Amino acid sequence: xxxxxxxxxxxxxxxxxxxxxxxxxxxxxxxxxxxxxxxxxxxxxxxxxxxxxxxxxxxxxxxxxxxxxxxxxxxxxxxxxxxxxxxxxxxxxxxxxxxxxxxxxxxxxxxxxxxxxxxxxxxxxxxxxxxxxxxxxxxxxxxxxxxxxxxxxxxxxxxxxxxxxxxxxxxxxxxxxxxxxxxxxxxxxxxxxxxxxxxxxxxxxxxxxxxxxxxxxxxxxxxxxxxxxxxxxxxxxxxxxxxxxxxxxxxxxxxxxxxx
Amino acid sequence: xxxxxxxxxxxxxxxxxxxxxxxxxxxxxxxxxxxxxxxxxxxxxxxxxxxxxxxxxxxxxxxxxxxxxxxxxxxxxxxxxxxxxxxxxxxxxxxxxxxxxxxxxxxxxxxxxxxxxxxxxxxxxxxxxxxxxxxxxxxxxxxxxxxxxxxxxxxxxxxxxxxxxxxxxxxxxxxxxxxxxxxxxxxxxxxxxxxxxxxxxxxxxxxxxxxxxxxxxxxxxxxxxxxxxxxxxxxxxxxxxxxxxxxx
Lengths: 260, 248
Prior knowledge:
heterodimer; A: mainly alpha; B: six-stranded mixed β-sheet
């Protein structure tokens, strides 16, 4: 029975290999036609050498600015994650199928899906246009995208909570709030925090490039230095971004180890 | 007093009912063993008594109040009088033993006081007394997950007594414990039943243990009550009726 289900919708063996080859070759030809990516385009690589030579030696005089930009980037990521968590934590009670009925849950889950389907950079462009250049639209962009993600992740943690302690709390005569607070949250909290710290880690990476569209942080410096052809300063920006990403990885791993 | 009259429950339409016309009365101070094979309807019978399961027909009366027709606020009021202990204990693993016992008061105190940990001195004193009564004095600050199975069930019993219940239901309360520990837990439940004049109903799959502690047996098979009488009269023929020919 399960074998039948597993194979349903699959092509027979005779057709599978030709179908795969058609897909790969068709994709290759189609992509070259669409992008104009041909071997003679590789000529442009000769400029790359010149560009990379121009980046050295790095101009470390911008280091104070870069450090400040790094600090702003971490701040944007932290605030964006914090705002998202503060809103997502209660919203997740309303999206969890085992806590809230479909009349509230379904529209809210749709709204959250829309929030997270817009990438951070697009949110940043929207908020830069709607407000101003700087760190604020960066924070708002990360918050908007991450409310959608965290509400979904946290709501799913609530849904997976074992039924036993919830029944035990209900059996004492506790109301819905008591059942959720004592029957679900103590079990869910470590995973909820772990998800949130993981998003913080991702947000440091995202915040590093948000400046490219004018939403603050170290990306702003990268953009300025590139536009003014200050490649030796840009090298320091790139080093700063790499340092941030490494820091985020390390921080995330350390925190998750503590929480779990 | 706990009374069932013609209680019928079907989980999935078209499937055989989990309970069919079950009628049963249990008086205060009585400790009844529910016997029967897996899937016979023992858990459903127990869960009907506090509204965790709502039957489609019949009546369940707890301390003079009908359970089935109640709204949620009234149902909560009935649940305060009906304490339940479970096979897997269902404690909050990351809470201390004391805090687990205090959650037995959730039906009586306001949610905000409980959520903020503002338990009254009287409640805390009662929880400590109950922990001493179940033999866990000095373990108040331990986390529930640090305890053995038998100790966990003792915490669950203390939590149940924290409700000051009239009725105590046990859904296979000793099935996850070794025979020695299980016997000591049943001894505790039997003593509490007498001390507090509880109406106690336990589903037990270990018939030998059930014979030791319960004077009355109720046999459930295929959703029907097929035996209700003294434990002493549970003969091999009765066992056959309850468990089928493989029962003895």
